[in-house]
User: Which sequence fits this backbone?
């Protein structure tokens, strides 16, 4: 009789304990990173009241109630909730964040972190998140357990200035561009007897002579040189002069242009190809006795320069920016261009400021050279910084087409340059491998730190410390530090928190079965009590 009472009591006691676990689960339904608990029952010892005999095959045993064998945490993944807060972190998969608790390191799945006034990434208890600090060249000092440290980001850090050492050019130079010499041609031919005259023809023999010229008559030569300067000269006729004498006077008057007879016409041609301001006009002197009827000159070929240019901002060792213009000019030679570098400020180009570019018949780059045997563009910034020595890259490469020459719009541009100004930290990002990246005002992106994760062989053996913290114990096994990489199946998601993994419907169901178990155990006790009371009354 007493055995049934004790069995009922064990049922009450252990079901009450189970209810405590369920109550704790439901209370933490909205606790970030909370892992629900589960209480496991087993039967208690059985009392043997009869052994196996020839007539009784099975032993006779009476159970002594039930007991709690374990209370374990269930570490299945909780749902993820986006918060938009950079330092809210959730683990997708297995693992724990590692926190510095002074004399020991503790674990958590609750990723509500923030940067404190010292730049440390901490939880709301002030425990620093552990990981590895990365150096300027994006190489870690080691991903071992012994190199773990508090993740600390100096919000006042700067990205140091870096002088430009390389410029990568890319794009097309229009093969259809031409560089031509300016040509001015007399509007109608000079003739003699209806046939085209030549340079040896006497002026007074021309059909265009209205009244024969006499010694001392003049022809006024006016216009502009190719550079835009004014031309004003006078040809004075002498008896027997030919057209060549007039041509000599024109050639003496102009700088950068030459006159000649072509098919009976006086033709003035620039000596150098390119943009031009040349113009010419011949008129009879006002006091002349004779008169020659001369047509106006016509611009038959415009002087143009086939030109394409681009500009780039470069940086010196002090982080000061300088603007450099690179101008490409088509030469008269097939598939050849010249190039020149210019600055827009007080900078001085010391060497390597010009050269040539050639292409093959298919428009592919064949050479990019510097004049005077130079190999680099050297610029003195004139501000106390170091001399800039810059390599110009025109070949194709990763993400760059290099220079080409096709009959299409010129698209020459500077694809990239490797200099930068001083930059201040403007924003942070955290990728799915736990790398904290900084973006600086100069456009530089730098990896600053990497968050560590930890694994234990037996998560159920972790010791709960409260506030979502766990400590490794004998049952859990030693903490094993994990560095996430491209092969990792686990990941860290920024701007997200892992919610409690409590299943409310399951907890309510277990609450019902726990209540029924408690009621049934209580009923065992009341029934056994009634039986004892009946036994006591037998004496009466």
Assistant:
């Amino acid at each position: 009789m007493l055995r049934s009472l004790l069995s009922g009591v064990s049922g009450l006691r252990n079901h009450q304990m189970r209810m405590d676990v369920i109550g704790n689960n439901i209370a933490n339904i909205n606790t970030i990173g909370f892992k629900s608990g589960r209480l496991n029952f087993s039967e208690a010892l059985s009392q043997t009241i009869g052994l196996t005999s020839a007539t009784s095959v099975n032993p006779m045993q009476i159970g002594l109630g039930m007991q709690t064998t374990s209370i374990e945490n269930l570490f299945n993944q909780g749902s993820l909730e986006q918060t938009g807060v950079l330092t809210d972190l959730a683990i997708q998969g297995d693992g724990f964040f590692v926190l510095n608790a002074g004399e020991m390191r503790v674990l958590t799945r609750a990723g509500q972190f923030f940067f404190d006034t010292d730049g440390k990434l901490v939880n709301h208890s002030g425990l620093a998140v552990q990981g590895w600090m990365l150096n300027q060249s994006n190489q870690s000092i080691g991903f071992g357990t012994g190199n773990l440290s508090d993740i600390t980001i100096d919000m006042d850090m700067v990205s140091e200035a870096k002088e430009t050492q390389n410029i990568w050019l890319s794009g097309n130079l229009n093969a259809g561009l031409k560089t031509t010499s300016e040509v001015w041609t007399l509007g109608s031919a000079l003739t003699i007897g209806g046939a085209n005259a030549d340079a040896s023809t006497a002026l007074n023999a021309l059909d265009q002579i209205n009244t024969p010229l006499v010694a001392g008559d003049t022809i006024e030569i006016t216009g502009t040189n190719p550079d835009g300067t004014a031309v004003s000269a006078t040809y004075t006729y002498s008896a027997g002069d030919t057209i060549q004498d007039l041509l000599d006077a024109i050639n003496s008057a102009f700088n950068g242009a030459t006159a000649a007879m072509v098919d009976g016409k006086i033709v003035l041609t620039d000596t150098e190809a390119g943009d031009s301001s040349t113009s010419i006009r011949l008129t009879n002197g006002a006091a002349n006795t004779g008169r020659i009827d001369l047509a106006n000159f016509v611009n038959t070929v415009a002087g143009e320069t086939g030109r394409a240019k681009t500009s780039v901002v470069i940086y010196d060792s002090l982080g000061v920016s300088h603007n450099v213009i690179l101008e490409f000019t088509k030469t008269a030679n097939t598939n050849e261009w010249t190039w020149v570098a210019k600055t827009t400020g007080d900078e001085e180009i010391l060497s390597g400021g010009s050269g040539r570019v050639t292409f093959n018949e298919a428009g592919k780059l064949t050479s990019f050279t510097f004049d005077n045997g130079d190999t680099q563009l050297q610029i003195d910034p004139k501000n106390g910084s170091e001399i800039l020595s810059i390599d110009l890259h025109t070949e194709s490469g990763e993400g760059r087409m290099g220079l080409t020459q096709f009959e299409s719009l010129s698209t020459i541009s500077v694809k990239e340059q490797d200099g930068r100004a001083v930059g201040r930290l403007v924003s942070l990002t955290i990728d799915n491998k736990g790398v904290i990246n900084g973006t600086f005002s100069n456009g530089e992106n730098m990896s600053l730190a990497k968050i560590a994760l930890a694994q234990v062989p037996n998560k159920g053996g972790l010791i709960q410390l409260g506030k979502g913290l766990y400590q490794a114990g004998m049952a859990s096994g030693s903490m094993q530090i994990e560095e996430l990489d491209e092969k990792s199946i686990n990941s860290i998601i920024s701007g997200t928190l892992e919610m409690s993994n409590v299943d409310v419907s399951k907890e309510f169901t277990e609450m019902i079965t726990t209540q029924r178990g408690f009621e049934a155990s209580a009923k065992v006790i009341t029934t056994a009590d009634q039986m004892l009371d009946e036994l006591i009354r037998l004496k009466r």
